[in-house]
Amino acid sequence: MRRLFCKSLIACVILLPSAPAYAEPSSGSSALAAALIAAIRDASSLAASDQKKVVALSNRILVENNLLRNKSFIQKLLTFDMLPSDSGQPSAESLFKILVNAANGIEIGKVSLNGNQKQELADAEKLLYSDTRSHAPSPQLLSYSKYKTKSDSLKEKLTNRSLSSTDRLLIMDEIKSNDTDWRLYGYRVDIEQAMQVMRRYSQGFTTELRDSWINALGAETQFDVRSLDAAFGRSDWSRLTFSTQKYNLSIKVSYEGSSSTASDKAIVSFDYLFVPLRRAVLEHPFLVDTGWRLKGGEQTISDGIEGASDRELIPRIYSNVILIKNLEVNLIDPMDGSFIDGLSKATSADLSGFTFSNSEACYQGKYICLPRAYIIGAVIEELQKIPNPEPGRIWQENR
């Protein structure tokens, strides 16, 4: 396993190899966090993914109470909007700053249309807009939008894992009923066909998407931290238990002025959750539109191929953070009585790299529990190909 040092907030990132997930004897301050990440990786589908990598952070981030109003904590989270390097380290390059600069190099291509295609485009515009110059939405498009908004809202409700089976079935029935009405009264098929024609043939459609994307880019400077706040109300946390011997892990407990007590025989349990880092600018429909390119095609935001290249600006991103809570360590051998006496008087202590205070922990002779939540790792993901211009577009230098 490689250990890499940097000067950013996260001083070091450990990139876990494919197999074994964690095998090096572990005794450093980041050892427990790395073992937790290894256990998560072994238990999840990410272990078999080539497009996603799990990284363990050597500096855990304690999730503060009332996080949405804690400016210093939110400032720490900016690290996850930096580009990950090949090694997994956060670089000094901001994802959002790169996109802002890239926006200046957008080129929109024209399509050379024959007579039939021009008529298709005119018919599509007539269906979508009551005024093709101002692009005021037609009654058909407004009706379509009403049903789509309802469908999206119902599907969002289904993502709540705390729903009962009865409520889930009721929502699914409502989605089915709405879809039926959408087809009958919401012009769904006709509107979506018209939109597809616009995407293929209209330079103006791509221009509108570009302007909308640039507006979104101007309004967003960080991933949506509300997803982190909402994580604590979710019911889909998973719990894992493992033996320290599986990952050659030595548990160390220490407090100020003390020598640490260590044990290589313990059972570790914890809850974990993957929290997606939602960024509106990366989910915007402009990025999948096929009518644009960057700087004469010499650059891409991403080439969709694993690994970085000189042409791509954002080869990979942090797509999720990994939260843990309720970390429990059951020791086979009890801690020394005098050591526990000192621990109970200490203002702060350390559990293999997890710093805690007496008010934040509970412990007995053979047991330690840290209920607070920490960010201990992240998922690095390759982006799809962006942009992916359609062949046959006519670009500025060819006009």
Radius of gyration: 26 Å
N- and C-termini, Cα separation: 54 Å
The number of helical runs is 10
| Amount of beta strand | 25-35%
The total strand number stands at 21
Biggest sheet: strands, sense, closure? 9 strands, antiparallel
Give the fraction of residues assigned to helices: 25-40%
Mean pLDDT: 85
C-alpha geometry: elongated
pLDDT under 50 segments (min length 5)?
1-29
Structural class: alpha+beta
Please tell me about this protein's structure.
There is one protein chain. The protein is of the alpha+beta class and 399 residues long. The protein has a domain at 3-94 and 224-279 and 318-382. Helix content is 32%, strand content 26%. The chain is built from ten helices and 21 strands. It has helices at 31-43, 71-77, 95-103, 115-128, 139-158, 165-185, 188-201, 203-219, 226-230, 337-345, and strands spanning 3-5, 12-15, 52-62, 82-84, 90-94, 106-108, 110-111, 129-131, 136-137, 238-243, 251-255, 261-263, 266-276, 292-294, 316-331, 349-351, 354-356, 362-364, 367-370, 374-382, 393-394. Strands 1, 2, 3, 10, 13, 15, 18, 19 and 20 form a nine-stranded antiparallel β-sheet that branches. A hairpin with a 5-residue loop joins strand 11 (251-255) and strand 12. Helix 4 (115-128) crosses helix 7 and helix 5 (139-158) packs antiparallel against helix 6 (165-185). The longest helix has 21 residues, at 165-185. The protein is elongated. The protein starts with a strand and ends in a 5-residue tail after the last strand. Mean pLDDT is 85; it is low at 1-29.
